[in-house]
Amino acid sequence: MGKNFLLEIGTEEMPAHFIDPAIRQMYDFSLEYFKNKKISLESVKIWATPRRLVVYIENLGEKQEAQEEEIRGPAAHIGYKDGMWTEVAKRFVEQYGASLEDLHIEETPKGKYIFLRKVKEGMNTLEILPDYITSLLKSIRFPKMMKWGDVDFYFGRPIRWIVALYGDTEIEVEIAGVKSSRYSRPPRFLPQIPIEIRDADSYLNVMRENYIIVDQEERKNEILKQINKIANENSFILDYEDDLLKEVNYLVEYPTALLGEFDKKYLALPEVVLIITMEKKQRYFPLRDADGNLTNKFIVIRNGTDNYKDIVIQGNEKVLKARLSDAEYYYHEDTKHPLEKYTEKLSGIIFQEQLGTIKDKVERVRILVREIANILGLSSEENKILERSVNLYKADLGTLMVSEYPELHGIMGRIYAKISGEKDPIPEVIGEYIYPRTLDDRLPSNFLASILGIADRIDSLTGYFALDLFPTGSEDPIGLRRISGGLLRLLLESSLKLNLRNLFVKSFEIYNFGEKYPLSQIDKGMGFIGQRLRNLLLDRYSIDIVDAVMEVGYDEMWRLKRRLDFISKFKEKESYEKLKKALNRLYRILPKDFTPKEVSENLLSSPFEKKLYEDYLKIKNEIFNDILEGNYEVLLSYDFLNEFSDDIEKFFDNVLVMSPNEDERINRLSLLSLIKLLFWEILDWSRLS
Question: Are 8 and 184 in contact (CB under 8 A)?
């Protein structure tokens, strides 16, 4: 029978975004550790607050399982003679503290040997737990690690106390100069009297009694209960991002929801400014009325009880008023001038130290946009809209509002463009080029915004690729993963017929690096893009489909997307298995570096190879142009594939491909190679499961 185990790591306040990754790591490590140590357990629970990381293991076994091991001893003919164990065998068992009854003889590849079957008793869990605690804390990786004082230990934030209990027994361990005990600490809003934890079983209740809700799910539900109660009692509608709830949950240990308000005059500001100020700057929950209009009310989550709540509300209202007053000033100052005026400031804003200013970037993007427009054959009106949009799309970076609220770039550009009287759809293009900002964000509704977004991201990535600023491990300070993710979604879902590699090469030319940076950096960049693309596609398609399609190239995302959609549907058809099997047979026989020649009909002697050649010509004439155009779905209704698959099988069953006659052999290999190349236009069939 096991006991419950408790480990509480008390720290200084941990940034909210550090906590979820730590929870996952602690859970995985704990399961793996005790599995490897062969100690049974019922469940592992990881709880967290801003100041505590907690492992709670239910019914952790009191000792390791006994392990049976076999030790090979001397050869049987030495240790066992005339039905008796020899002195050699006796010395062998004495060496391991065993008896002759534990010996047996087994046949091995090297002959018969004596083996000792020994049961190794498991260690007590109490002896193992100090190592578990130390190993666990050393294993956790945070987005940023820190060292404090003169201790040689790295963690997300300084460790201040450790509680470690197995049942009611203290586990003695010292980490980063902190010795474990059974005493936790109260929240900061209470007198700092240590909290005694008598045993692991009583932990949650003792913490609740001291105004600490350790379980993040319980805490989140408490927040939801309270904010919904306030909203319902006042006939308001809650409207907030999911990330806000997650962040607030990791900012408090004992949540209390309070209703505050601000001056109605600030409702004249753009709604997005109010929401960003409340959600991002202050972590408040905005409230709407029954008609969906934003109100001048908000909910703040206090870390503590409702004692002195009026003072707390007034303090939060005062802080919000100051922020909104600043925003009002920025807005009024910004709107004194048309948006175009702020383009003058772009030459003073650095894009990247070695890649120039934002103005330099705009000029590069302008050339790239013209190139894309030419490739796509845009109309003169569409070209004019794009030209004007390029002029203005970074202008809001020169405004006061975006200087204070960088996350509003593009969004304020759209608002200011409308106020400045820019004609539709220019404000829309300016405001939407930023999307998607994350992998699950929305896409632009206007394809011209997609073009601008593609050009902007291509320019950024080309510069970073040239400078070799690739992410290392989990670190990605420039945000290459985010930028490339947005680019890939635009290319995959916009269906614009563009070649990604060619755009990178063109962008590289526009930068005019000269001999400073090699063009080969684009190859390295495409490798990085390929890995990002594969990860993105694996969320939607099976691994064999993704690898089969990517193997034939991913320069043209529109083709890749069509190939993926085609094979996903084709897999459901009866002809799929036959064609895959036939083509795989063909793939296996072709030498890797074989270069096909033109097939000579005069050398086709067998009726089976003649028929296969006719099949090849038929497919080439009837649907190959469709395949080249990316119309792969024509194959879904192409009934000839069944007959073609049968003819490949008949060819292999009746024709000697590797003929002793060299001309005949090369001719047959050339026919097979041409068939492979024809279907290679779609995917690598050998990778399909």
Answer: yes
